[in-house]
């Protein structure tokens, strides 16, 4: 009976040891945090507000908000230069006062490319690239 118990424990330790070895990273291998991306610019292709004033766009993520330096008309581009994690959802808004802000849309950051925001008769895009700003 005792020898069966010892054999059983030995097998359990061997299996557990294999599981620990398989789960441990190899020597010299770095485990990296989430990849980052740099949102470089925002372009207003079609503003939500009509007239000479244009839109006052801002971008919102789970880590903060970026606001345009002023009003932006059709065809205007502003530098953003904000680092976000890939997989982050970015929302685009037009700031309005005294009425509520207008939601233009949302898109998710990948490894590089363009975020597209279309809503409330407006169209914005934001360029981004892989890596931190």
From TrEMBL:
Keywords: Signal. Residues 1-26 form the signal peptide. This is Uncharacterized protein. It comes from Glycomyces terrestris.
């Amino acid at each position: 009976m005792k020898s069966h118990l010892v054999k059983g424990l030995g097998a359990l330790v061997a299996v557990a040891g294999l599981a620990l070895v398989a789960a441990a990273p190899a020597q010299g291998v770095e485990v990296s945090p989430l990849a980052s991306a740099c949102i470089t610019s925002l372009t207003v292709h079609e503003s939500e507000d009509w007239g000479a004033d244009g839109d006052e766009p801002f971008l919102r993520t789970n880590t903060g908000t970026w606001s345009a330096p002023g009003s932006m008309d059709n065809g205007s581009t502003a530098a953003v230069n904000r680092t976000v994690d890939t997989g982050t959802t970015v929302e685009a808004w037009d700031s309005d006062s005294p009425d509520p802000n207008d939601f233009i849309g949302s898109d998710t950051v990948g490894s590089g490319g363009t975020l597209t925001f279309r809503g409330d008769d407006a169209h914005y895009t934001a360029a981004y690239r892989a890596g931190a700003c």
